[in-house]
Amino acid sequence: PNPIYRKDYKPTPYLVEHVYLDFLLNEDKSTVKSKLSMTPNYENSSSTPKLELDGRKDLTLISVSVNGKAVSEADYERTDKKLTINNLPQGKFDLEIVVDIKPQENTSLEGLYKSGGNFCTQCEAEGFRGITYFLDRPDVMAKYTTRIEADAKAYPVLLGNGNVLEKGSAAAGRHFVVWEDPWPKPCYLFALVAGDLACQEDVFHTVSGRDITLRIYTEAKDIHNVSWAMDSLKQAMKWDEETFGLEYDLDLFNIVAVSDFNMGAMENKSLNIFNSRLVIASPSTSTDLDYSRVEGVVAHEYFHNWTGNRVTCRDWFQLTLKEGLTVFRDQEFSSDMNSRPVKRIEDVSRLRTAQFTEDAGSMAHPIRPDSYIKMDNFYTLTVYEKGAEIVRLYRTLLGKDGFRKGMDLYFKRHDGQAVTCDDFRNAMADANKKDLTSFAAWYGQAGTPQVKVSPVYDASGRTLTLKVSQHIPATPGQAHKKPVPIPLAVGLLASDGSEMPLHLKGEAGEAATTKVLLVEEAQQDFVFTEVPEKPVLSALRDFSAPVKLQVEGQTDAELVFLLAHDSDPFCRWEAGQTLLRALLTTLYHAARDQKEPELEDRLAAAGGVPESVTSALGSLLTSKDLDGMFIAAGISLPAATELIGDIPNIDPLLLHNVRKYVVKQLAARLRPQLEATVKQNESAPGDSFVPGEFDQAARRAVKNKALGYLSALDDPAVHADLLERTRSATNMTDQISALAGLADSECPERKTALEELYKQWKDDSLVMLKWIALQAGANVPGNLKNVEKLVEHPAFSIKNPNACYSLFLSFLRSAVNFHAADGSGYKFIADSVLKVDKINRQVAARIVSSSAFTALKDYDLERAQMMREQLTRISAENGLSENVFEIVSKSLE
Ligand code: HT7
Ligand code: ZN
């Protein structure tokens, strides 16, 4: 397969003004008739250019005509991927195409397919070409009119984009609806749903006094569990009006939940389609995390109406233009709805554990990639999450008002257009009269910048000099990088824990206690004056840039001090994490360098867990002025993946065991405090679960974190208590946390609890996803056998993406079983990828790209070799999809 390059972008020679679609939906085959009003987009010339339409080999072409006349076979050519039409007339013309398709056989879940007996679509990125031949690219924006016809009994609900223009009955018990969308859009935002669905309706009054009808559709059994999604939608609509002055632009907004969906959700114009796990929520089946995900994703898709739909991307390389910006917007929304510090910590943890790894692996790419084989492979954490961090840089630098001015100018200039990331940056720059040219480097370079800060205090001059340097490691295809502009937010703490007023040399103005330094060079000094005593540096406040920071000479005592006193909640949390990362690294090295005696003794001989760390975490745990969510995050150990890459040729099993040792030591020493925490945060009998109620959720978070620690003690009394909790829990957060505590323990209660949960919830497919995930990810030795059985279990279906993610992605996280020394875990994943690829290439690609296979060079030589063998085996498979091929071949380079 040939890569597509960003530098090759060219506008199309034809544009489409209007698209008329007629869908005749049937059980055996469906017919799609399209009429496109085409308009020339080329320089005048004597001959007309050819028109190359995108398509797929499973389209059965019935007819092609231009201005009502059939195109002769001599005037068009067809390949598996294209329909090329020659000798077109000068000027505007109408092109009519009829194709047959078989949605019921479409297991890829791209284009038009069936889920739970209903028809639905997924067109981003390039699914529309699976529905009919078209100019399937985002810079072709057209108005759409869609007629949908189907059997009235089987498919009573027929939904499309925009407003209903007409509806009625048709022959043979069929009915039809015609939808019209007045807003020009790219075809990736086209959607259709036909099915037997229940609906919950509500209304939103806009700031300008219009009433918008809101409807959520699900299978009848789930419709009583959509209130949280509906409330989230209304909150999001209000927030966007208040925060960015953005009002909804149609009279109807629909959300449809489907159970077979490759990603989370899709922002089709006025007809969002959602993975059911991100719409349906009830206290007894959904955790606090599920609730916050529903809230965040409902908002994210809604926000796309402006950032993505009204202003869209010129080409797919610009994906971060809409995704980075919309993630930033949903992060801000969730911060305003809940706890801002906790949200920031969650987002940074995700970035660190998954995006930093991606940025250091074989698939590393800039937020605006230079090339791809399959665009589907670039819906990544880099494009989404790092992209959001780059948007955040503008906000940090320009302030809230400056950022808003930039957004206003962006919409003023580009409403109704398909644009680039440069257009966004220019709007930010021009609205604020700033030169932001150097920020282009963030869009073109992969890799996580490593920033070193050396604070040098001069007592006689009362100055503190911060010597800052940056380096971006090499990534595939990019050996040398130039410095990027890094807003580095810093504060200085006095010995009593107070914040010092900051005076930056060469800068007048009021002394603030947080200062954003703009680091633009490879090495740069910043001097603070009037510093009365040697301060403790608090750096990268609020995680002001997506970098890895190292403060030279920072002592454990300083970290403990920051953990106790920093006024910046992110840095406070970060101090604890830095302490723990250092501890895990030290113990890992101690354990690796000797083979005798037993691991626990080696670790103890290396100093074990120092008292300073235990007491710092103990103080956090018992703190009265912090909420339970923050405490839970503060006492969590950094994920193993945060250390992979930093420790060369890592043995993942040894790291897992070191981590386990630290958890157990902390649990043993802090047992009284942990037990007290559980007791104090127990919900009172009769307390009812209130979705989104922060205090309740915070108490559950810290209680369950404490129980998680206690479960590491291997104490039969704890196991019995956890089993009892799985039985008596009144909400899913508590029930699944208790089960998680047992899932990694080799005790009789584990089996009982798993069996009981299955019996209780076997008819609820969303709870079954959790049940599968807990078992597949368990770190009990020899668990592969159970996981292989799970694949055959009735609760699992290989055709369902959610089930595949629950099983295979969770298995990838089990250090003990995925990284088993005999390579059996690697073989199981390779076999599974090959099986899934025959059914759904996007899901298969997501499994490989989430695996350690893409970072094999970071692992010990034996494991790296075993991973390479499995990748080679996958790459040799006949009929391998381009999706999997791209990831596997890059990982083998
Ligand atoms: N914009 C949506 C992307 C998406 C997608 C991409 C590839 C294949 C399937 C997909 N489903 C949804 C989701 C979003 O970011 O809002
Ligand atoms: Zn999105």
From TrEMBL:
Residues 21-189 form the Aminopeptidase N-like N-terminal domain. Residues 228-440 form the Peptidase M1 membrane alanine aminopeptidase domain. GO terms for molecular function: aminopeptidase activity; metallopeptidase activity; zinc ion binding. Its cofactor is Zn(2+). One of its GO terms (biological process) is proteolysis. Keywords: Aminopeptidase, Hydrolase, Metal-binding, Metalloprotease, Protease, Zinc. Residues 447-551 form the Peptidase M1 alanyl aminopeptidase Ig-like fold domain. Residues 556-893 form the Peptidase M1 alanyl aminopeptidase C-terminal domain. InterPro entries: Aminopeptidase_N-like_N, Aminopeptidase_N-like_N_sf, PepN_Ig-like_sf, Peptidase_M1, Peptidase_M1_dom, Peptidase_M1_pepN, Peptidase_M1_pepN_C, Peptidase_M1_pepN_C_sf. It comes from the Eukaryota. Coiled coil: none annotated. NCBIfam families: pepN_proteo (TIGR02414). Belongs to the peptidase M1 family. PANTHER family: PUROMYCIN-SENSITIVE AMINOPEPTIDASE. This is Aminopeptidase N. It comes from Coccomyxa viridis.
